[in-house]
Amino acid sequence: MARNDGRLESQMRPVTIERNTLWTCPGSCQIRFGRTRVLTTARFSDSVPPFLEGKGTGWLTAEYAMMPGSTPKNRKSRGSDGRSTEIQRLIGRSLRAVVDLSKFGPMTLQVDTDVIEADGGTRTAAITGAFIAVIDAIAVQFSPSAIERIVTDSISAISVGVVDGIALADLDYSEDVRAEVDFNLVRLGRNGFVEVQGTGEKNSFDRAALNQMLDIGELCLNHLKIKQKEALGELWKFD
User: Fold this and answer.
1) What's the rounded Cα separation, in Å, for the pair 121 and 34?
2) Domain limits at 167?
3) What is residue 76's predicted lDDT score, i.e. its pLDDT?
4) Helices vs. strands in the chain: H and E counts, helices first
């Protein structure tokens, strides 16, 4: 299948990760998957939700939003909706899978992800970039040496799907809207899925198609792990 940007079926769009994008926040990251661009910030607050008060443990929560000008057609309205709520819960669950909340006491690590430009794969880019912002926030709040004590593994995410009967990795918007099957994979760096979200949007799929999507997805997740490692440099503790 010829993709509109010439990529191979198992190939990601170009990925760039920029750390410390904002001087106002201890952890910040801008990540690009092709034309999709997501800004993440992470900072600690000295409180926890009511259900954790007095328990001596911390919390991590995430918010997700699309900027009004992030899509090419209609202006995206500000404010939460069902899709945003579902995505921010996914981001929070994914990050909590690799952060030992008991290690930083009664504080909340607040992660905010804002989609600046959307061309498919916004939730997977958000998770992948948010991990970088979380590492920097922990390093600033505690110390670089505390990362190994608090964070158990790296985490990244990728979209895969079936378009015109062919399994493709990292769908852009033009592919996503035509996809017969759509999956989002969230995986630990040491291998082990945290979440697999999959839907037969237009057709059902068999085990062979599922295996093919998982295989090409894992290739991309291995690539994202390398990009995260390069971005974090000496803060990388997860091999």
Assistant:
1) 10
2) 15-235
3) 67
4) 5, 9
